[in-house]
């Protein structure tokens, strides 16, 4: 019942993240086709993905102002823009075109993503509930379903120009549920005489940004390159690569739902710590896999590890800052952290070009390991602050 209650309370961002999942699942399963259509090498494709990072950083920086300007209309407007941008990959015909198209995608998707997460954090404080994991489970479920659908469509011979319009239509239908209407209201004002901190807690923001960054590296590197790993490194047939991203999405969805319960029982810091350990193990299994079965096991372990880090880190940061600072703090943590969502695949591209995909996934494992000291520092600082009080 707590999960159903959480969905009801956060319906608008819940379905906004679902629509984002539809896009990323579609894109991840279509990476081999888009890359071939553009005639891009691994390094060129990796460089083009930095365009999405540039667009995403701009959206993250402007997110608090956008939310204030558009108010209750922010999620519907950004979702419509994302659906329109989803049609751009069909226009790719050269490596040069990839960068601006992915930059446009980065602006629209990142803008919707960060505003949905800021809204969830507001609702968590207002209702006294943990909402992040169930909302991010919706993203993962839609991501996995979209990747599986697209894998089937690719096997049936569908082109980029056919797949993206259809999947954009599905995202559009989900968009009908992001309108909050009268249920929406801004952050509750502070009572008169209440002191609001003048400075942001930059240490906590930076450490949360590190957690987000390396988690997004592990998650999106696996999303964007697992299909190519299966089809190129292991000799899978066209379309079989889509089972990599779909496995990631479905397993993450299940464990994010479990995280809705375990985070409340175990606490954010402990959950993020052990998630980081599993993320490292999963990436190493992928790197050493010699069969499709083993690589899917590695992807599943990575999914278990990556599943709850982002939503749980968001909730943790929300508790560490004053509510009037929450939107700005989360946007600044994401400004750095979300770049990992695009730098991860770019890193894979550059390393793969020079040393191969297996070494690239070893690099991912090393980066994911940085979650562990970040969690330990936050835990030590919170303990020291509690003792001082």
From TrEMBL:
Q: What are the protein's UniProt keywords?
A: Membrane, Transmembrane, Transmembrane helix
Subcellular location per the Swiss-Prot or TrEMBL entry:
Membrane
Q: What is this protein called?
A: MFS transporter
Predominant localisation class? membrane
Cleaved signal peptide residues: none
Please give, as recorded in its UniProt entry, the membrane topology of this protein.
Answer: Multi-pass membrane protein
Its domain of life reads Bacteria
Say if the entry is tagged with keyword Protein transport: no
State which residue ranges cross the membrane. 12-31, 43-63, 70-90, 96-116, 137-156, 162-179, 200-218, 238-259, 271-289, 295-317, 329-351, 357-378
**Alphabetical list of InterPro entries matching this protein:** MFS, MFS_dom, MFS_trans_sf, MFS_Transporter
The Major facilitator superfamily (MFS) profile domain extends over 204-389
């Amino acid at each position: 019942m707590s999960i159903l209650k959480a969905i009801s309370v956060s319906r608008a961002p819940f379905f906004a993240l679902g629509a984002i999942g539809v896009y990323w699942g579609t894109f991840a399963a279509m990476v081999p086709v888009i890359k071939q259509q553009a005639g891009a090498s691994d390094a060129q494709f990796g460089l083009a993905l930095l365009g999405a990072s540039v667009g995403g950083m701009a959206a993250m920086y402007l997110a608090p102002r956008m939310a204030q300007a558009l108010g209750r209309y922010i999620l519907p407007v950004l979702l419509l823009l994302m659906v329109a941008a989803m049609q751009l990959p069909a226009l790719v015909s050269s490596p040069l075109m990839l960068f601006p198209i992915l930059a446009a995608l980065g602006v629209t998707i990142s803008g919707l993503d960060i505003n949905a997460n800021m809204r969830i954090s507001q609702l968590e404080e207002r209702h006294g509930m943990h909402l992040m994991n169930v909302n991010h489970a919706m993203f993962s479920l839609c991501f996995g379903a979209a990747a599986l659908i697209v894998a089937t469509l690719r096997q049936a011979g569908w082109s980029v120009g056919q797949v993206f319009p259809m999947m954009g239509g599905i995202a559009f239908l989900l968009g009908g549920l992001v309108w909050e209407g009268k249920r929406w209201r801004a952050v509750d004002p502070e009572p008169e005489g209440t002191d609001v901190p003048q400075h942001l807690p930059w240490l906590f923001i930076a450490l949360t940004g590190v957690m987000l960054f390396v988690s997004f590296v592990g998650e999106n590197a696996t999303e964007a390159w697992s299909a190519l790993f299966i089809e190129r490194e292991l000799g899978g047939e066209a379309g079989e690569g889509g089972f990599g991203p779909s496995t990631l999405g479905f397993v993450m969805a299940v464990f994010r739902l479990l995280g809705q319960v375990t985070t409340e029982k175990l606490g954010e810091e402990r959950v993020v710590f052990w998630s980081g350990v599993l993320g490292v193990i999963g990436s190493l299994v992928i790197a050493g896999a010699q069969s499709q079965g083993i690589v899917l096991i590695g992807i599943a372990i990575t999914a278990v590890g990556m599943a709850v880090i982002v939503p749980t880190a968001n909730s943790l940061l929300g508790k560490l800052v004053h509510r009037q600072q929450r939107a700005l703090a989360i946007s600044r943590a994401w400004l750095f952290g979300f770049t990992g969502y695009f730098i991860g695949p770019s890193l894979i591209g550059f390393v793969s070009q020079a040393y191969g995909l297996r070494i690239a996934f070893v690099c991912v494992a090393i980066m994911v390991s940085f979650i562990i000291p970040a969690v330990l520092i936050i835990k030590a600082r919170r303990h020291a602050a509690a003792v001082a009080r």
